[in-house]
Amino acid sequence: METIVQIAQLLLALSILVGIHEAGHMLAARFFGMKVEKFFIGFPPKVFSFKKGDTEYGLGAIPLGGFVKISGMIDESMDKEQMKQEPQPWEFRSKPAWQRLIVMLGGIIVNVIAGIIAFVILTYNQGEAYIPAKFTKEYGVVAGEIAQEVGFQTGDKVIMVNGADYDRFGDIASGETLLTTDGYWTVDRNGQQLDLPIPKGFLNNLSDEEFQSKFLEPRQPSIVGGLQEGFNIPLQEGDKILQANGVEVKYFDQLRSEMANYAGQNVAFLIERNGQEMTVNLDVNEETQIGIALSSPYEIDEYTLAEAIPRGTSKAFGAVILNAKAMGKMFKFNGEMSARNMSGPIGIVNMFPKTWDWNAFWGITGFISMVLAFMNLLPIPALDGGHVMFLLFEMVSGKAPSDQFLENAQKVGMVILLLLMVFVFGNDILKLFGI
């Protein structure tokens, strides 16, 4: 059932994004007097369609994209018969290059606008929840297996990232941090400063779905934030747990580790309450729990609408910039970042939560919208960016490429996209089997 919910979210997101992308092309074409013959969400075979005016609207069975067919345009339909006829005033090829350029950019522009709107609204409605850097600067980190492989130890205090100060725990492993050339973390280990370089190939760890839990967690003091129902214990909110049976457990990772030794037992705890130390006895259940919830480490920055607009816009374009940097590292073929990190629809499904959450849905949809805009702008024939590339050449040189050249370029682009789809689907399938 959880997988079905994730798939449903992906299909809805793609339908919305493909719909507005193709609508961007269609509206721009109509604005300049071009005839739009077809508007489809999804690829053939056709599920259903209807005609309104000159345009056939329809739904395809393969929900991985969509298309508009503009009269007189060399596209994936490869309608050679139409291109043999004399150009008509309402056709794409009859219009000035600058108008055709706007039509080709229409879908990308709409995707960018949609992504920005999603980020702005979520920033305004939710604010930004984060863990302050004081947890990792003052209390240190809990090092998982991936962190230990690069030299971290539990208790290390991360004092700088890439030689600079930082404000949030998330900055330690943000895309900007990890994509920096010759990046490193500076830690304080028992009073001694050490630089831990980000090793070559470290970015490949990001493909591990459990990366966050295997890398670093902020070290949290064992401060009671609340009591769970079903437990009758003499603790209060704000109590600091210092020792269990004489063993120091002032941090939660220490407490969690020590409780594993006392399942089903009654244990004496030393706590601090209002500056006074006292001993209380607590029952540890068979699941090694004592019935407390820790004080939350999260803080929330709230934004007015005026503040959310630049902040949300910055986050939207930041997603594009990070993806561009990641793609650049993939194509260096130096092992710094493997193309195995690329994901197709199967991998993207896992981005969505397993229960329906509209805030999460719109956040992920906004992110995908920005990535789709970037991918469509790549100068590959058959993508919008390929058409833009040829139109810019025409505008600069004053001479348009021949129809035969454009047809052959379209074929090459379609082969490239097909091979790319096979590659990312293969990646997703191999990951499903842990390969």
Automatic annotation (TrEMBL):
GO molecular function, one term: metal ion binding
Membrane topology of this protein: Multi-pass membrane protein
Pfam families reported in the protein's UniProt record: Peptidase_M50
InterPro entries hit by this protein: PDZ_sf, Pept_M50_Zn, Peptidase_M50
Required cofactor names: Zn(2+)
Keyword list, A-Z: Hydrolase, Membrane, Metal-binding, Metalloprotease, Protease, Transmembrane, Transmembrane helix, Zinc
Domain of life: Bacteria
Stretches assigned to the Peptidase M50 domain: 10-420
Protein localization: Membrane
EC number: 3.4.24.-
GO process annotations (BP): proteolysis
Residues that span the membrane, as ranges: 101-124, 360-382, 412-430
Assigned GO CC terms: membrane
Family: Belongs to the peptidase M50B family.
PANTHER family named among the record's database cross-references: MEMBRANE METALLOPROTEASE ARASP2, CHLOROPLASTIC-RELATED, REGULATOR OF SIGMA-E PROTEASE RSEP
Name listed for the protein in its UniProt record: Zinc metalloprotease
The species this protein was found in: Roseivirga ehrenbergii (strain DSM 102268 / JCM 13514 / KCTC 12282 / NCIMB 14502 / KMM 6017)
